[in-house]
Amino acid sequence: xxCRKFDNFxxxxxxxxxxxxxxxxxxxxCEMLLHLGHTVVCLDNFSTGHIENISxxxxxxxxxxxxxxxxxxxxxxxxxxxxxxxxxxxEAALGSVPxxxxxxxxxxxxxxxxxxxxxxAARNAKARRFIFAASxxxxxxxxxxxxxxxxxxxxxxxxxxxxxxxxxYADVFARTYGIExxxxxxxxxxxxxQDPNGAYAAVIPLFVKKLLNHEQPTINGTGEYSRDFTYIDxxxxxxxLAMQTTNPDAVNQIYNTxxxxxxxxxxxxxxxxxxxxxxxxxxxxxxxVYGPNRAGDIPHSLASIEKAAQLLDYKPKFYFKEGLKExxxxxxxxxx
Length: 336
Known about the structure:
By secondary structure, the protein is α/β, with parallel strands linked by helices. It has helices at residues 24-35, 55-60, 75-82, 97-102, 104-125, 158-177, 203-212, 232-244, 265-277, 306-312, 320-335; strands at 15-19, 39-44, 65-69, 87-90, 129-135, 181-186, 189-190, 218-220, 226-227, 230-231, 253-257, 263-264, 289-291. It is globular, with a radius of gyration of 19 Å. 46% of the residues are buried.
């Protein structure tokens, strides 16, 4: 079980709302929290999440797990879901830079309007702490490496704007209404249950799906753009640390959630091909094709995790290669 990595992260049992709880990150959070003994409410409208991600939780944890089908754009749905919750883990959003460029209005409505609704609902319900999924896209056109939380550039996409506005709103609610928040800037999260299908699939599951089908993945640009790919269990760890911290200096802060490693897309392809070739030798013969760069993409992304280490005692449980082996093993069992 995923919770095996978090046996030391025990705290008094709580009621926790996970928005977007049927999605990739949200379903992993729900599963981990239930295994740790918490009561979990999942709010999801299934626009990007899948019932298959949580069906085993609905049957296996029926006394402690509640699914509310609702939309964060509807304030009454948010208020219903947050009722009695000690903590809110806000994962619901419309991700993807290309999606936001194609349809900025819907991205704005969900990521800003929905976020504001959740803040209002959490404030009114007097939740102890509001922890939310921020994004490394906030660093925008800043060329500084590694990325340090207090130094950002101009956003390069509508999606990046929405995630930065989330941080601003959380800070205003802390100053104005006394709500406690922690924002976690996720850096290219990957792992079990990340959806390989659809027009806006993330790069790792998309490459895996192509390789398993003996097809050539397309690498945007020269393949020398780099990312700080972060395995899902590190994200789970950071959410737990954000919930549990009693350090007053650690709250009302934004943290990079990453490994502090930089991997190019060419390196990523090579590692994936090597890992999957252990299951299917034909995959070793596949070469990528190269296409144009995507609009809105940041060329290089590398996180400083010093702030999280100092204030939250964060140390990644999985570095890139180890996490990628776990992920490709899961994909081989579940996608082939």
